């Protein structure tokens, strides 16, 4: 498993914000342990007393990433903060110091709760803010070939002339998690290349843009992303995000009125995503404007006669709609077959109602796979290869029947529900519990509508009305991971470990107990982190006893 991509752009979203007044009289430098479920607020204060030594411990599978969090605070100006990692040693083996990585959280504005910690930057040295809590996110990647056993050692957090030791104890179990790129969990976070071009001020589809896209795609792949989000019309979501989604297929109307199609950008994007580790399916959006029940489907095209972009006005199901999409599919299928991609493509649709779906399905030739994110309709069940149902999804019986037919069943959150979700204001435990909910309902994975659909300046503000702060993205420019994305990844690791345990001991009652405890409360304000930790501990107990 590759470590996460470091930031290419370094900036602090809350650099100009004043420190909390409560810290004005405090002196010195403090470093202390914080729960990984704790999201720091810019106004919070450090503990009153220093910590003599920090003890970090975990039980993990091989190829698992273990997370810890520390807090740091100083009254000094320009104090340099860094971590000193050393090998962890076991019985004749060791975990190399290179298995560690330190990331530093920045604060980002939310309209609802002020400035909260969320974006993470991978840095060798961080200049500490003065009189403000600096969260430190530590990742320990247990190598896939690590010998099972107990590993111990010490690491240090260094801030100015202050050194804070921490003892570490890691018990490594014999089983290994799959690489996220080959895992069982189906993660679908919709990509948005145009937002990346705009933020980084690079021309769309320029060489510089492709270099950036590779970095963001690697970040997605390392998190376990599967589908490739490909737009086959311009702005298929009708500009509901700050940046409209750019088409990857150029629709061209010739002088004789007939359409032809340029798939050059589509081919480049799909090839790049496959090379960087996204296996697919290639989800092609879309046969209509979405989301919602609107039936109009304007298609932007290049008019060769006038040498301008024009709009073809049509409505789902009318004669123009049927004709133009028949022409598109007639050209698209042989192109995909020539590339060897046809069996890895889905015609993808967002939140279309049952009647609208019926009209769109009538325009899709037989043999094509179709994906829908929306409400569950029994009449559509067998016709959809990938059916993603709004939280809470469907029950295990439906998921099992679909899986037996070779179909995928997932669930999603978006602008709602209020909980569980992955907003910047969502308690971090909710990001982890999403994968446990997938286990409870027998789903194959989880979808969220936006990987990087940023507002104007996401490093300054995560707000984008009318939705909750952070609703439109889970990673930051750089590319940077986030606290939310890290905890989602932890939940996916739980999901994979659970399936390994169930494969070895399907009737072990501890697995049912783990599901019960992890899913007892999905509202992160009331959920008990100790219960989710206990659920994973039960899974580890089962694995530890199995050969």
Question: What would you say this structure looks like, in words?
Answer:
With 547 residues, the protein is an alpha/beta fold. It has two domains: 21-175, Immunoglobulin-like, CATH 2.60.40; 185-478, Alpha-Beta Barrel (TIM Barrel), CATH 3.20.20. It contains ten helices and 24 strands. The chain has an eight-stranded parallel sheet with strand order 13-24-23-22-21-20-17-14. A five-stranded antiparallel sheet has the order 1-3-10-7-8, with helices on one face. Strand 7 (100-110) and strand 8 (114-122) form a beta hairpin. Helix 8 (483-504) runs parallel beside helix 10 (529-545) and helix 9 packs antiparallel against helix 10. The longest helix has 22 residues, at 483-504. The chain is globular and about 80 Å long.
Q: Kindly provide the name of the CATH class of the largest domain.
A: Alpha Beta
Helix content: 25-40%
Rounded mean pLDDT is 94
Task: Describe the strand arrangement of the main beta sheet, using strand numbers.
Answer: 13-24-23-22-21-20-17-14
CATH topology of the largest domain: TIM Barrel
